[in-house]
Structures are given as C-alpha cells and as structure tokens.
Amino acid sequence: MQIQQRINAIVQLGEVLSEVHSENKNPEISQLYQLVHAHNGWFTKENIDFSCKNWSEALTQQNVEQWLSSYELEAPSHKKTVAIVMAGNIPLVGFHDFISVLLSGHKVLAKLSSNDKLLLPYLVKRLCEIEPEFEGFISFSEERLTGFDAVIATGSNNTARYFDHYFGKYPNIIRRNRNSVAILDGTETEAQLMALANDIFRYYGLGCRNVSKVYLPKDYKFDPFFQAMFSWKHVINEHKYINNYDYNKAVYLMSLLDILDNEFLLLKEDQGFSSPISVVFYEYYENMTDLKAKLRAAEDQIQCVVSHTGMPNEIPFGQAQTPHLWDYADGVDTMDFLQKL
Length: 341
Hints:
The chain is an alpha/beta fold. The chain has helices at residues 3-22, 27-39, 45-58, 61-68, 95-104, 119-130, 157-167, 190-201, 223-229, 239-254, 288-297, 334-339; strands at residues 81-85, 107-111, 138-140, 150-154, 172-175, 179-183, 211-217, 259-261, 266-269, 279-285, 302-306.
C-alpha cells in the first residue's frame, strides 16, 4: 500500500470521527455511546464527543501532511508487527500510536485496555470499509502478546516494570506515569483561568495532559482562580467524580490537613505531581529561575507545562488536551522510532 493511499484513508477516518461526533443521534452511533458509557462510567457522552471532535479536527489532509513532512515515508521492504499496549484512562488514548504504525507501513497488534475496548474496534471497522487493504494490517489480542517485532506500551509506573521485563529485548517505547502542571504569576485574565479550568477538569483529570498541579507566586490570591473553576461546577452531577471528591475531602479532614475547598475541587499544598481525582496540588515558587531548575530536574515526571510566563515548551491555557499530531507523548518521536525498525 502506497503512502498516499494510507494518508487518504486516515484522513477519511477523520471525517468518520467528525460524523461520530456530530451525528451521535444516529441509532448505531447512539448505541455505541451508550455501550461505551455503560462499560466505563468515566466515558461520558461529553468526553467521547470531545475526543472524537479533537481527532476529527487533527486528521485533516493539511495536518496529516504537515506532520509527515518531516519524514521520508516509504512502504518498508520488511513489514514489522508492532504490538501496542494501550492505556484506558481517556477515550481513544492510544489512537495516535495506532495511526502512526499504520502510516509507517507496519502492522498493528493491539492489546486494548479493559476500560476502553469498544471505540477503536468500531473505528477499525469503518477504516477497513474505507480501505480494505488495511484488514491485513490490523489485529487485536486479548491473550498474552506473541509474534511481534517491536512494542509501544503505556501504563503506570508499576506496569512499566513489567513491560521492561517482558518487552526489554524488543525495540520499544515504554511510557510511565506523567502529569501536567500550570504556572501562574497572578496576572492571568479571567478567560485564561477559565481555560485552565478546562485543562484541569476535562476527562475528570484522568489524562496525563490534565493539569494536576499549579505553581503559584507567594501571597497568591485564590479568589479569581476559584471563580474561574465554577465554569465546571456541573461535575458535581457526576456521581463517580463527586464520590472521589467526598472521599478525598474526608481523608484530608480526618488527617487534619489544610486544604482549600470550593465544594467540588480541593487544593492541597504538596510537592508531588500526581494528585487524586478532584484534587489539584499547589506549590509556591520564589522566582522563575529556581522554578525552571526545579521543573528541569523533574522533566521525566511532567507531560506538559501550561503557562504564559515564557517557560520552555509551554503551551497556552486551555490547550492541554488538544495536542497537535506532532506533539509526541513523553517527547519521544514515535514515527522516527517506527521508521528505524
């Protein structure tokens, strides 16, 4: 299959994702949404919609060609089978790896997370209707993975130890826990803080690109921050989220810990990065020079930095969960890895 043939099919799949997003009253798609939500209560209609909309906007002809322009893609003389062990924290979280393998000309052997095992098979069915040649390039496995040449695996720090042991002898990309942070300096506008609320609450904070910690200047005034967070007050209607909020609040209060609370979000001063659902950690900084050094020392724990303070590689408020195709997880160039197999 020629590269342009693969690109055209993936672009058309982007149009299918637009259809899924915009036509979820279609009986087939409506049933898909219901099944996905019944299987995983965190995957609400809003979250599925947001994911599908993002992917439909990313997979335009212009975006795909801009992404691939950095590589000399040709059909490999020896097609390799790339096993993809997918996470299931947010809808279609492993989709970038999936399309990367297909566009590189290799074969996909996907092991789906039990938390997200319905959306990708549906899209694969639609992709193979668009380009039947892809049928020979895609397979799924629920058993122990065998018969592969390389691995892309995403999981927690604990599962990564298993991945290292089992997959270490193969060419691999193994991803571990990462979290995203925001840096505020007190000059943020209401619009910027409301955009930050999206970075915090989207997917209930379950994604590695969700902001789980904020760095603040000394004597920061929290009122504008909490006022902006109220744009997401509807999360109190989601029982899975509010159960986490109630539990974490009870634990902190019984432990006599100082917390800030707006009745659906807890702020806890903490040097860690990985905050529980419904909690955002915060930490004060003395100056930007020291903060840059601190973030540089912790770069293997940070996925992205949301700010307007001039930090290296920072992204604007509100764009944490809308990465470009060339924004690789953990900063590892997946397509370059695949080309070198």
